[in-house]
Specification:
The protein is an alpha+beta fold. The protein has 14 helices and 38 strands. Strands 7, 8, 9, 10, 11, 12, 13 and 14 form an eight-stranded antiparallel sheet that branches. It has an eight-stranded mixed sheet with strand order 31-32-34-33-35-36-37-38, with helices on both faces. A four-stranded antiparallel sheet has the order 3-4-5-6. Helix 3 crosses helix 14. The relative contact order is 0.12.
Length: about 700
């Protein structure tokens, strides 16, 4: 066991006596749940009209705005002497971005579609050419659409099957309530069709006369599917599906074949799907199989030799790590499910793509992703092989199913992202694109490793590492240790140009693949949620201690970073082991867990109960969440230097969670470590919009990490 001590801090890590930090006025609110009475001194920071604030930041009340702006002003003063460094970092980060970049065009009938950026452009353009090449046609110009707006985000754009229209959605507040519009490709003008408050995605009918979309309800939840006829007002849209249970979200997509529109209904452990024939768009959706608690399934259809079959990825029965079954299109209920790829413990099937003659699986084994191709005619399978010790893979679903070409992406922490087209019959691999780093990148100067740390209960926690070959591994190096650990989301060991600014200054960059993700199968997720949530925190601490013992860094030399639910992890470990960390960066951190899970009116609360437990109905869940929730755990103790980032219009982690947490730490801590809260008053969960606007926030984080570790 490591000896705990408080290392000496660099000057930047200690808050100055002048200026004095803001002090939020305590206005105690008392609440009793399950016989337990709690006092919340900063509940007033939650705006009563928070729904209006998400749609219009100007609606925020004066006293709350005054406090948030005072925190922003204080942070600006403390960070003023880092301005030159931040400018250098922004220049470095931008220098690694190919400004006039483009995705590899994806063919669809007579055209090939791509997203691209112009030099100096913040936002993407949707373009197309003839399938075999030719003059480029701009269908949507994100920069032009964003002109004059404080915030702008272009959601996924979908072209119609007849190639005459594009449905696209935009968010102009950061609140993720997207306005859907239809553009006439021939004229380049938008139709009068304007649909507000959607989830951002649209799916076309086969005849290009209708689009299906999901509308947000009064609680900002994606709950209802509508069908919009082109050229008619949104008020005339037909309700296709309405979800009555506030714990379930609804989404729309299409099968790979394009034959069906899919209505997916899900929470974090249960799902069901409904099918609408794309060529009969006014048909009522048909249920595939009724939802069954803790059972998930997703559906695809590729046409071709299996046109009469659906392919279903499911954990039905005892298939914890999922299996693939088939079902007749005309009778898709569970009674007709037949195993195609049986369950194999420890092999987590992440996704499937059904094509006309092949089924592609993306799966994870031993913490690493794998792509497996199955020929449907005879069941023959093969795997696409890769050589590096740790890497990231992704399957790119194109527009077409009648193809033998699979597109996939590959990168590692030392290898820039590559896009390949792979012939599933000849097994020929063609490199279509490799990420360019304009300022230069020599992979041979860097080392990537995969290690394992032993958790308190004996589990081995995977760790991905990146450092320069010339970095001394004698315990003197500073480290950026990143973690997430919730919702089954796994952080890939991918190429990150932004990490190089720290790595080139002597940092070791590490990712802790803690429980709560699916890095080692579904069990890894199961053991990091609800009753097992605290494993996420102890895994992260175990990784930090292992990397210290292995000589990669030292106590007080680690900067921990995480966002959203990973920000909750940051809050927990900052409380548990402040001695380990030179600093902690918590981005839009989910830290007021208990109060949020006790409020069913908040957008994400009912759907989140399967992840954390329902403290309203379950006294044990209440006690468990209270024990680890960072806001509830604040007390008279030291804290490491903290940089906390928030978004005013954030619908996922509401701005008042980080604001309340910071206010409480300021009032109760026993030390003078620097504590900064920066709230983006014009953005939400994802921070600043645009390619380059986000770089300012990354530079801020990196300048903080350099400051608290004393790196010049």
């Amino acid at each position: 066991m490591l000896v705990r001590h408080t290392p000496a801090r660099p000057p930047f890590a200690t808050a100055p006596a002048d200026p004095r930090p803001p002090s939020a006025e305590p206005r105690p609110v008392e609440a009793t749940v399950h016989g337990d009475t709690r006092i919340d001194p900063y509940a007033w920071l939650r705006a009563e009209d928070w729904r209006a604030v998400m749609r219009d930041p100007a609606a925020l009340s004066g006293d709350i705005r005054t406090y948030l702006e005072a925190e922003n002003a204080y942070a600006d003063v403390i960070l003023a002497d880092r301005a030159e460094l931040r400018a250098r970092l922004v220049a470095e980060l931008r220098g690694r971005i190919k400004e006039d970049d483009s995705s590899v065009p994806a063919p669809d009938g007579p055209f090939a579609y791509a997203m691209k950026h112009r030099e100096g452009g913040e936002h993407p353009l949707l373009v197309r050419t003839a399938r075999d090449g030719g003059p480029e046609e701009v269908l949507l110009d994100g920069d032009a659409l964003a002109e004059g707006k404080a915030y702008f985000r272009l959601a996924a754009a979908a072209h119609a099957p007849n190639h005459a229209f594009v449905a696209y959605a935009v968010d102009e507040t950061g609140g993720e309530a997207f306005t859907l519009r239809i553009r006439d490709v021939t004229t380049g003008a938008d139709l009068d069709d304007v649909v507000p408050d959607t989830s951002g995605r649209a799916v076309w009918s086969a005849d290009s006369r209708f689009v299906f979309y999901v509308r947000l309800d009064e609680e900002h939840r994606p709950a209802r599917v509508y069908r919009h006829r082109i050229g008619t007002p949104a008020s005339d849209d037909a309700l296709v599906y309405a979800e009555a249970d506030p714990g379930f979200f609804v989404s729309v997509s299409r099968t790979q074949s394009g034959r069906f529109v899919l209505v997916d209904v899900h929470d974090h452990e249960t799902s069901e799907a409904h099918l609408i024939p794309a060529d009969e768009p006014e048909t009522a959706p048909r249920l595939v199989a009724p939802r069954k608690t803790a059972e998930q399934y997703s559906v695809d259809h590729g046409g071709g030799v299996a046109d009469d079959r659906l392919f279903i990825l499911t954990n039905a029965g005892d298939a914890e790590d999922f299996k693939v079954v088939t079902a007749p299109v005309e009778a898709p209920d569970r009674a007709g499910w037949v195993d195609l790829v049986p369950h194999e413990a420890g092999r987590l099937i992440l996704s499937i793509t059904a094509l006309a003659g092949h089924l592609v699986r993306l799966e994870r084994r031993d913490g690493l992703p794998h792509i497996v191709v199955r020929r449907l005619a005879d069941g023959a399978e093969h795997e696409i092989r890769f050589d590096e010790e740790a890497y990231s893979l992704g399957v790119v679903d194109g527009y077409e199913a009648e193809t033998t070409t699979l597109r996939f992406t590959y990168s590692s922490m030392t290898t820039p992202a590559r896009v390949y087209d792979y012939d599933m019959e000849s097994r020929e691999r063609v490199l279509r694109k490799e990420q360019e780093v304009p300022s230069g990148h020599d992979s041979s100067l860097y080392v990537t490793r995969r290690l394992h740390a032993v958790a308190p209960d004996g589990e081995e926690v995977p760790v991905s590492l990146l450092h320069r070959r010339d970095t001394p591994l004698d315990g003197s190096a500073p480290m950026l240790l990143y973690g997430y650990g919730s919702y089954g989301i796994s952080v890939p060991a991918a190429f990150l140009t932004n990490a190089l600014s720290l790595v080139d200054r002597g940092f070791v960059y590490a990712i802790a693949h803690v429980r709560g993700g699916k890095d080692k199968g579904w069990r890894w997720y199961r053991e990091g949620r609800r009753e097992g949530k605290e494993n996420t925190f102890t895994d992260f601490v175990a990784v930090a201690e292992h990397l210290i013992e292995a000589g990669y860094t030292a106590p007080g030399r680690i900067v921990a970073q995480g966002g959203s639910a990973g920000g909750m992890l940051m809050g927990a470990v900052a409380t548990m082991r402040p001695d380990l960390f030179a600093g902690v960066v918590a981005e839009v951190p989910f830290v007021d867990v208990l109060n949020t899970m006790l409020d069913p009116t908040l957008p994400l609360t009912p759907p989140e109960w399967p992840e954390w437990g329902n403290p309203i109905e379950d006294a044990e869940a209440y006690r468990r969440i209270k024990r680890y929730a960072p806001y509830e755990s604040v007390g008279a103790q030291p804290y490491p230097p903290l940089l906390v980032l928030a978004g005013l219009t954030d619908p996922r982690v509401t701005y008042w969670e980080p604001a309340k947490w910071v206010a409480r730490i300021r009032a109760e801590r026993t030390d003078d470590a620097v504590l900064l809260l920066r709230t983006n008053m014009e953005a939400g969960h994802g921070g600043a919009a645009g390619r380059f606007g986000r770089l300012e926030e990354i530079a801020l984080i990196q300048s903080f990490a350099l400051g608290v570790t004393g790196v010049a």
